[in-house]
Amino acid sequence: MPHIHASGLAIEFPLYHLGARSLKKRILANSPLRLREDEASRIVVQALRGLDFRIGAGERVALIGHNGAGKTTLLRTLAGVYEPVAGRLEVSGSIGALIDPSAGMDPNATGRENIVLRGLFRGLTEAESTGLAEEIGAFSGLAEFLDVPVRTYSAGMSVRLSFATATIMDPEVLLMDEWFMAGDADFMEKARAKLETLVTKADILVLATHDMAIVRQWCSRVIRLEAGTIVADGTVEQVLGPA
Amino acid sequence: MLDGSGLPQAMPATTYIFDAAEPRRRDRALADLDSGLRHWRLPVALAALDIRNRYRGSVLGPFWMTLSTAVMVAGLGLLYSSLFKMSLVEYLPFLAVSLIIWNTINQVVADACTSLTSSEGIIRQLPLPYSVHVLRCVWRNAVIAAHSLPIILVVFAATGVWPGWGGLLAIPGLALLGVNACALALFLGMLCARFRDIPPIVGSVMQLAFFLSPVLWRPELLHGTARAFLPLNPFYVVMETIRGPLVEGGAPAIVWVSAIVYTALAAALAFVFFVRFRGRIAFWV
């Protein structure tokens, strides 16, 4: 069964290229709690500190918290981008990450080429990826612009392409950042319908968001992060109070 | 409606376990290399895209490299053959092969420094094997270098000097160069991601190495002790395993031994470094 188990999970970002020692001392002296000096006397930001949680199949988890609380870092860690410096993480099930819509997009290549590239990133063959182009192109509604370099796209068109390309998957564990709110009204409706199918099909959803309406609509559990630690974990009513 | 149901299972259901107390770094590094090689289509496609982007809008594209190398071979050939008092027929094949191999080495090394930092956007968003970025860098350079091969053929035809069947020994030489390129792209890519002062140092070292290695001058021009130390120069031995079979009727055994030892050392160093610091790359780039 798909599940996520984390115990004592910690991520630290070393701040390289800081330069002189005196500068380092100054930074540490005025530091909020999250900067510390590690054994090799580097300054590190403690992005996530000792997280313990278990997410089972069927759960819809919202990660909430202020900017910089560690939501996206946690998503990236769950996706396998960052290796934890301490603790244990176990993620079972195929992972689909919608963290950055434009990840791996090449602005100089055409929309179609980017779709093929994205397919290859996923481990598909070239033929399978090319087959996807039609499907994705139709969904994005880009029509003839599909054969034009992406750098000439308007912001709305890029979002359409990114969204259509990124959401062509069928994962068991869906990790999602809240970027999907962008896009024009006409496309939003299509996008929302698409996301809903994706979310319904996935066994686990982990969603980082600021929008409490979305949390109440889609999620069954809320984890509130603050300065890299979990400060609240419970059902939507327990954490956010009654609607 | 688009639902991806027609897709083959692109991501087989797996369990990703990471325990900081027991990182199993070697297994992860081996799995990374294995998966990068198995998905070789991805780096090849990325490299093709890189080359197209680099030369977008250019009429000659990568053949500009061919042209500039051809001009350089012609110019240096005329000058240095008279400086070294050699006939053009004798010197030109040597110079053409030398320059093309050296340009390839030089470009691989320069590009190796950015093999990981240039893929920062992908590394921090998608959990791909790092070896994909390394292979992308190596393949990109291999394809660009291949554009210069016609020069060698033209020079061979013009001077009437052909290597014969012994020239096939250049193939293991090329393989050694390929292994070195992969090792360097991995090692320098990581080192330069962590320490941003490395690329200028590498640039200076390569410039020095160009003059200290027998690229323009024949190794026979050295005498005594200097000649004896020549096989210690890694640039010379790797270059000679390709150049020797093509223009000098084969390379000495000591050159092959030295080239193989250096290649093994480079690969071992890169692998050890990769095993130890693989998990840190995402934080470095």
Automatic annotation (TrEMBL), chain A:
CDD domains: ABC_KpsT_Wzt. InterPro entries: AAA+_ATPase (IPR003593), ABC_transporter-like_ATP-bd (IPR003439), ABC_transporter-like_CS (IPR017871), ABC_transpr_TagH-like (IPR015860), Bact_Polysacc_Export_ATP-bd (IPR050683), P-loop_NTPase (IPR027417). It holds the Pfam family ABC_tran. GO terms for molecular function: ATP binding. The keyword Protein biosynthesis does not apply. Residues 33-243 form the ABC transporter domain. The keyword ATP-binding applies. Keywords: ATP-binding, Nucleotide-binding, Transport. Belongs to the ABC transporter superfamily. This is ABC transporter ATP-binding protein.
